[in-house]
Design brief:
The complex is a heterodimer of chains A (about 170) and B (about 180). By secondary structure, chain A is of the alpha/beta class. Helix content of chain A is about 35%, strand content about 15%. Chain A has a domain of about 80 residues: Nucleotidyltransferase, domain 5. The chains are: A alpha/beta (about 170), B alpha/beta (about 180).
């Protein structure tokens, strides 16, 4: 029997031939080939570094929709073509331009905050019962765009449908 | 006597697997969360977030048919600028085209050209497009988008609106930040 013949027998000095495959089975467990990971990790880290260094977090931008007057009416002042009882909002800057006050038709005092402006517009909208009354915003030449947008935004929030800008006469 | 274990150099190594896992997670996050910047939007415009903002996120409402005019402040990128300086417009930008203050005719020409190109692509009478319910079909309209720095004074923004009117554009969008959740 071949297997029993290869077992070491006390006193037997015979050297038997062992094939290379049999040598592997007897030694460490067989290693399977692995793809080289180093270049992949290198590239991955390059990408990660690129994204971390170049990323810039931005706040969500949106659009407040509006309409523009038809061509030809832009050169006319609002008093030439009066819409039915428009609500006029004047935007007046403070001396240092860092704040603004609002004046609204039918409100005797200057409105200090956009919150108050929004509430007054909402009340007016409920009194009138219609969204078709035009809102005309009269910004001063020096007033910041931000305060103009605030007025536009509040008119939009009060659900008025016809909101426009006018140049100061 | 306890036998101390001696490791050879070949036995010591970092376990790379968790690190690679985290790295891939980060890469997937950045790839999915990133947005490719469009040249229509100038990067250094300080937009306003109005009180209880009514701005509709642009990701929800897409306006492919528009011309965006960026109004960049003279103090863009400056830390704590003088309000008087910031109130002035530095330049205007439509896509990659820059315009200086006072170049109203050039700006109006560009806006008008964009509008005409759009009308030509769309076919006749796009402004008369209407939905079945009689309302105007906004998807066929051409928009003027005003993306102005909140600090710039009205006198530097008003000519853009006037140019839009002169070009026969009837719809306008004011870019602002959306309400914070």
């Amino acid at each position: 029997m071949a297997i029993s013949a290869q077992k070491p027998v006390e006193g037997d000095e015979t050297v038997h031939h062992v094939t290379p495959s049999k040598k592997e089975k007897k030694g460490k467990p067989k290693k399977y080939p692995q793809p080289p990971m180093t270049p992949m990790i290198d590239v991955t880290f390059q990408l990660l570094l690129f994204f971390i260094l170049t990323c810039e977090f931005r706040e969500t931008e949106g659009a407040i929709p509006g309409t523009l007057p038809s061509k030809g009416s832009v050169a006319q002042s609002v008093t030439d073509t009066p819409p039915p009882d428009p609500i006029q909002i004047r935007v007046i800057p403070s001396a240092n331009r860092e704040s603004a006050t609002y004046e609204m038709t039918g409100v005797g005092v200057a409105i200090q905050t956009v919150h108050d402006l929004g509430q007054l517009l909402q009340q007016r909208r409920e009194q009138i019962g219609s969204a078709d009354v035009p809102i005309v915003i009269f910004p001063s030449q020096e007033v910041s765009w931000g305060f103009v947008v605030e007025a536009f935004n509040q008119a939009k929030k009060a659900k008025f449908s016809k909101i426009g800008f006018a140049q100061q006469a | 006597m306890a036998k101390s274990t001696v490791y050879s150099c070949s036995d010591v190594g970092f376990n790379m697997t968790p690190m690679i896992d985290c790295t891939f997670q980060l890469i997937i996050f950045f790839i999915l969360a990133s947005q490719v910047a469009t040249d229509a939007y100038a990067s250094n415009v300080k937009l306003i977030r109005p009180f209880e903002s009514q701005a509709i996120p642009v990701t929800v409402v897409a306006f492919p048919n528009k011309v965006t005019v960026n109004v960049v402040s003279a103090a863009a990128g400056v830390q704590n600028p003088d309000p008087g300086v910031a109130a002035g417009a530095g330049f205007y930008k439509i896509n990659t085209d820059k315009f200086n203050i006072g170049e109203w005719d050039r700006i109006a020409d560009v806006i008008k050209k964009r509008k005409d190109d759009y009308d030509r692509q769309l076919g006749p009478a796009p402004a008369l497009a209407a939905k079945a319910d009689g309302k105007e079909d906004d998807s066929r309209m051409f928009f003027l988008e005003i993306r102005a720095d909140e600090r710039v004074s009205w006198q530097d923004v008003a000519p853009i609106i006037r140019a839009g009117v002169e070009a026969g554009i009837s719809k306008m969008n004011i870019t602002a930040l959306t309400a914070q959740n």
